[in-house]
Structures
1.
Amino acid sequence: MHFDEDGAAGAADALCDGLFPLVTNDESLRVAEALAQYKYQPFVEKRHEQLKSVFGVAPVWLKSPRRLASLLGLYFVVAWVQALVEREVRRPMSVQGVRRLNRYPEGRASEAPTTGLVFGALEGHRRHRLFDGQGQLLRTFHDEVPEPVPQVLKLLGAEDAAYGLT
């Protein structure tokens, strides 16, 4: 076996060390705009990752492409609603100066709570209503709510009467 080192090719390659090629087919983008679009990519991919992790989308056997398109359209709407819920919590957080919500199970704070964390605060709350023989409501009983629930309800702009907080 014999090989020769191509010094010119090695020198040319060395000139490219540390460079990050950014390629796009949108000729109207300036370099800074293309870089900003590239840096936004992880946020888009995070939503797609949630299809498999949070929503549990798995391979399914559907009889027609139309049904598959309908199913994925439904998941698109779910991801869209999820993004809106997160926005509805995060915007008031910044306006009201709330830096973090203690929503993780171990008491850790979240600066950007996800929909799962927000709904997790409200999950499991029970309401019982006691009626008399004529169907008149006598009394409503509510489970005690954990500490972050009033704060989450306030951020969402939701009525807290359904949780027995009035």
2.
Amino acid sequence: MKISVIIPTYNRKSFLLRAVKSVQAQSAHVSEIIVVDDGSTDGTKELIEHENIEYIYQENKGVSSARNCGIKKAKNEWIAFLDSDDEWEPDKVAHHISCHSEHPTLLASFSDELWIRNDKIVNLKPHQKKEEPSFLNSLRLCKIGTSTFFCSRKIFDKVGDFDEGLQVCEDYDLWLRILLEHDIKFINKKLVRKYAGHKNQLSFESPLIDMYRIDALEKHVSSKHKSEVIHELIYKTTILLKGAQKHHNKDVIEYCEKKLKYYLI
């Protein structure tokens, strides 16, 4: 099984080498490491110029564009993603190879992850625990961390790449598109270390994140799960409306009221 690993990065010089080294240290062979530099200005290129990797620089277009660039450049059938501020446990790839060997028709899998903040393990709340995903149980929250994801490139031929129009929640959007028609197998092992609490983390810095989840959900209002999708859209839009009313955000209030009027017809 030949594997390409795609690492998008933007001004994460202080973390990137740790991520790259964690791929190089895998117990199972990784054929190709692609770092897509999304317009860094912090000396990223000089940091990794002596590493045995494929380095691609592009003007800043966002993480979805960087990942899609990596997908297009990847030479191998199997693709894994690693965010540049995360790292893999040494047997991460080996577990995925074993999983897909046991399930030869499976196109995608993901693992559990360990969250670390200020050098301490973060105990996740019950609703944050990972589980075998389905389209319906993934509507409320994003079930899969991108750094845990492993797939055949055939999956992108079937459902498309990351949506470059979404500033955040591009992972939530992709998982829903995949799960609508395909299985994603859960490997119940903490094979990724995620580090929280530093700057430049989109999911923490982006305001009104539910607006992006709503955009992703609206792609499925005509699907076989129409009623469940509309129910979730009403739920998310109502929460967003309450927050907008609390902060007197007229634009978001208008956005939510217009959406709810349409959903509640």
